[in-house]
Amino acid sequence: MVIFAANFNHPLMNELLLIVLAYLIGSVPTAVWISKSLFGIDIRDYGSGNAGATNTFRVLGSKWGTVVMVVDIIKGVIATSLYILIPHYTQQQVEIQRTNLMIGLGLSAVLGHIYPVWAGFKGGKGVATLLGMAVAIQPVVAICCLGVFLLALYLTRFVSLSSILAGVSFMVFILFIFNEKEPLYRIFAVLVALMVVLTHQKNIGRILRGTESKVPILRHRDKRRQRKL
Asked: What are phi and psi of 185, to 5 degrees?
């Protein structure tokens, strides 16, 4: 990277700068900015209090929930792909090093989403940004996880449950189905599953109690079912 190389002689400094940049990208509070600019509210004052796609679906509806989810995924893709700014990591023979850096960049973006510097360090749960990270590193696995998410959402209309199942399926795909050999990536897959489950503990409790809110999608399907009953 020409700009970084001109200012710093040690390659590690360039990587640290990219990690900071990835955090700043992840910190973009999509749900907060949309709710404030278009609806005059702070999304964190409603629903579950989180600034993520799940709560946006719940409070602002499926249209804006989808917008937030897509933008948060893009944040993860962009942040994880910052490695291209360092020419060394674009070479084919450094695939393991590149993957390790991409994991570091992606996790930094997820951290930014959860604790955004632009929104008082109170953000979302990072699932959509995690998905964007997976898209950048392993797109086939990401597509499979997205399929799990969409199927679960169609069947249950619980975004939280869909996110949990997608996170756990990510681990299953990496460890067993695609049998990824890179140790750090395998550890990362396990941590993703644990993190998604742990950050959704309250949602799990509400699902078990039957008090978890469903997102306002597939209303026509539900109305047809009610008429049949």
From this structure: -70, -40
DSSP state of 41: S
pLDDT in tens, 106-153: 999 999 999 999 999 999 999 999 999 999 999 999 999 999 999 999
The secondary structure of 133-194 as a DSSP string is HHHHH-HHHHHHHHHHHHHHHHHH--HHHHHHHHHHHHHHIIIIIS----HHHHHHHHHHHH
The span from the CA of 141 to the CA of 9, in Å, is 37
pTM of the full structure: 0.86
Residue type, 55: N
Of the candidates 133, 159, 146, 148, the residue with the CA atom closest to the CA atom of residue 74: 133
Sequence-distant (6+) residues with CB within 8 A of 37 are: none
CA-based radius of gyration for the chain: 19
Determine the residue type at 26: G
Query: What is the dihedral angle through the alpha carbons of 125, 128, 105, 122, rounded to the nearest 10 degrees?
Result: -30
Contact status, residue 146 vs residue 183, Cβ threshold 8 Å: no
3-class SS at 224? Answer: helix
What pLDDT, in 10s, does the model give residues 152-184? 999 999 989 999 999 999 999 999 999 988 888
Cα separation, 110 vs 76, in Å, equals 7
Distance CA 209, CA 202 (A): 11
Report whether 148 contacts 165 (CB < 8 A). yes
Instruction: Tell me how far the alpha carbon of residue 154 is from its chain's centroid.
Output: 19
